[in-house]
């Protein structure tokens, strides 16, 4: 059973500072140990304050490669594009920010195969993966439902998959590409950052459900061998 530690904060700003500090330490350790760091960062809104603080860190950014842990299948520059948000923050620091969706396409399964090919040149396992969680228990873009089985139980060699969530999430009603469960759970470090009681409740329920959880986050957490920190602000 994965060792899970909750880190609770009075507010999101306090959490952002702690998350930024932890990610900085992980990046520094990866560079010390292997000369570079390849990290996957969650999309969505919760982690943005932490990313802005992290970008201020004195790091050897040219040795850091950042990919979005999942991506909406939209053109670069679209407000829904996760890599666009990450590029705005980290490209000016000299980091390599790598899109995982080559171009917007209606064929989301082809986009998933392209993403998988795009990521073959990265060193694996990832040095770090930051996950967000939705109130339906999704993480990255592994959503409950039919795609879940492929993303969660998909072929081990796949690092990315195209998914069409059903129903489409209201905040980003588009097809997506996501890191596979395998790519996530084999990372050298996995961390979660969430806010609000609803997400805390769904994660705690998912952890209790264990490896057969109805929630993707439960299945991912059950399969990660390393200790996981869950940062939470009310
Ligand atoms: C995405 C994310 C997704 C996100 C959760 C939480 O592209 O939407 O990667 O998994 O982390 O939906 O999003 P918020 O932080 O915006 O609530």
Summarize the structure.
One of its GO terms (biological process) is pentose-phosphate shunt. With 234 residues, the chain is an alpha/beta fold.
Explain what the structure shows:
The chain has 234 residues and is α/β, with parallel strands linked by helices. It has a single domain (4-233), classed as 3-Layer(aba) Sandwich (Rossmann fold), CATH 3.40.50.1360. Helices cover 36% and strands 19% of the residues. The chain is built from 8 helices and 10 strands. It has a 7-stranded parallel beta sheet with strand order 1-10-9-6-2-3-5, with helices on both faces. A 3-stranded antiparallel beta sheet has the order 4-8-7. Strand 2, helix 2 (48-54) and strand 3 form a beta-alpha-beta unit. The longest helix is centred in the N-terminal third of the chain and has 23 residues, at 12-34. It is globular. The site of 6-phosphogluconic acid has 15 residues, from loops. Keywords: Hydrolase. Belongs to the glucosamine/galactosamine-6-phosphate isomerase family. 6-phosphogluconolactonase subfamily. Its EC number is 3.1.1.31. Pathway: Carbohydrate degradation; pentose phosphate pathway; D-ribulose 5-phosphate from D-glucose 6-phosphate (oxidative stage): step 2/3.
């Amino acid at each position: 059973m994965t060792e899970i530690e909750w880190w609770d904060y009075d507010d999101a700003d306090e959490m952002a500072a702690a998350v930024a500090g932890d990610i900085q330490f992980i990046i520094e350790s990866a560079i010390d140990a292997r000369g570079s760091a390849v990290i996957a960062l969650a999309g969505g809104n919760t982690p943005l304050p932490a990313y802005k603080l992290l970008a201020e860190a004195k790091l050897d950014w040219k040795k850091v490669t950042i990919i979005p842990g999942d991506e909406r299948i939209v053109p670069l520059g679209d407000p829904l594009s996760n890599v666009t948000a990450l590029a705005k923050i980290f490209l000016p620091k000299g980091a390599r920010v790598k899109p995982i969706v080559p171009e917007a396409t209606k064929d989301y399964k082809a986009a998933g195969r392209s993403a998988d090919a795009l990521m073959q040149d990265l060193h694996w396992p990832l040095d770090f993966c930051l996950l967000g969680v939705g109130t339906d228990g999704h993480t990255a873009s592994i959503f409950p439902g039919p795609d879940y089985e492929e993303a969660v139980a998909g072929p081990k060699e796949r690092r990315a998959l195209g998914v069409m969530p059903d129903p489409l999430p209201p905040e980003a009603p588009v097809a997506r590409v996501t890191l596979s469960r395998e790519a996530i759970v084999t990372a050298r470090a996995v961390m979660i950052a969430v806010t609000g009681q609803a997400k805390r409740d769904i994660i705690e329920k998912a952890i209790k459900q264990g490896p057969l959880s109805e929630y993707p986050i439960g299945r991912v957490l059950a399969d990660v061998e390393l200790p996981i920190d869950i940062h939470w602000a009310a």
